[in-house]
Design goal:
This protein is an alpha/beta fold and 248 residues long. It has seven helices and eleven strands.
Amino acid sequence: MNKLNKLNKLNKLNKLNKLNKVVQTYEAALSGLDNNMVIMVGGFGLCGIPEGLIQHVYHSGVSNLRCISNNAGVDGFGLGLLLEKRQIQTMIASYVGENSLFEKLLLSGEMQVILTPQGTLAEKIRAGGAGIPGFYTRTGFGTPVAEGKEIKLFKNKEYILEEALTADFSLIKAWKADTYGNLIYRKTAQNFNPMMATAGKITVAEVEEIVAPGQLDPNFIHTPGIYVDRVILGQFEKRIERKITRKN
């Protein structure tokens, strides 16, 4: 039985179950997404990105988005698609990465970019999901990162106040899900996805496989279904960001 047939069978079994979070279309998965919203998008480079969800945001034409992600994919793929249509007004990220258009929009000032140290970015998202409004960190003190932020002294050392991040939508990618929305990530594709899952008002998970409740070992569930609102079965190209081969 292929994945689609399994999913159809699961949906029939769960159609009266209000805990069933599986949706059939990307339109349903992103219902409510609109202009001027804040979105978080999981992934690190092209690893662990919700490819289908990003493509649907691209085709939907929503604009003036404030996007929180480690980076913006590459030219023509991942979040790089949204840059082509200038759908992102503000990008909160850790680095420009392999995306030349991202670099161009940053340097020209056409898109506001808030570069954030990677560990700080992760903690800002984690804090948002935990309901913590902010935290103090040494990272960035004495650099442009600290400009305009509160400075506090702890044991004769200066720390800057970083505010938490939350989003209207968190778009994440997981390896396996059950119909209740419990998620398991695979290896390094886990990256920013678990923390972003907790920090969105609506969290949508695009996954490689959906199973019935009880088939995921509770000891290996990374994100409990309580954080997930919608689950959709995706198809993933899993493009390699930069392929390096050894010369003969």
